[in-house]
Predict the structure.
Amino acid sequence: MISTAARIAFIGAGNHSTESLYPNLAHIPEFDLVAVCDLDRAKAESAAKRFGAPAAYTDATTMLDEVKPDGVCICGMPEMHHEVGLLCLRRGLPVWMEKPPAWNLQDALELVAAAKEAGTWGMVGFMKRFAPANRIAKAYLDSGAIGPLSSITLIHGSGPYDDPRRMLLFNAIHLIDIGRFYGGEWEELFAYLTSTSAGTQAVSVAFRLRHGGVGQLNMNSGFTWSDCNEQVYISAAEGGLVTDGRELEVMTQKLRFADSADMHLFGWSGRYAVPSNMAGWFAGGHYTRGYWGELSHFARAVVGQVEPQATLQDAAEDVRIIEAVLKSAKTQAPVEVAQMM
């Protein structure tokens, strides 16, 4: 008999987790929050009280020994994701961890291997895969209605970074992952990376997809954290898709609602918008940006209702691409992604 709720412990009670992650849990019936852990006792106790966990801890091992959860969520810095992730996976526990899973490819692959050896699995916080606009776009693309993807352009502007690896691991990784979500694996890439006199990091990457399509990633850190922007443009044989992760525009002749017998129509399209006037936590973006979706999916995967998505292997492939971008930018030469260890 499949259980309807998973007993899940949460390790990490910092700003991101308490503002963007924990608020979703009350809206996920399959997610039973049984404990909170943080090195800062005050943060652990505050999060436990605010979000309904019966116990708070400052030591992860003690918590796992005493609570014996069905799964664990982990949110902190990359080295913490790697260290605590290994601790949980080696106990056979499925994990969800925030991105990135580690600072480098070797450690990301170690998490994949640990899960396989223990007969368990892990998910990583690529919430954009669970944003409704992106899921609708993927379903539309997979339907074949506009033919196979031929090109994809990924554009993102973030707040300031003083180091290109950090920018790639903490922000560009989202666009890299959503690019793989839509178009599959990257085969080869060439990257330019620059730092301006003002300290802005910028990267431009041209890449070839394994199935034959092409793409481009453009990102810079010249924005503020309150005005980040994102655009994804997909071209296919019979149309295209444009999304910012919250709204989706489908551009194809097939969606015309007029037969246009006596006129020529160009660029006719259909727009799908996720409602933004919902109350409470919906209005804060937890639903439209995919935070609710990823945590809901994790809980349902723990109880066996669905298969894990946005896996540790996906995260490792994203980090592999980042390592290839850094190598290409340094050598000013094309890099085969699969050759990165």
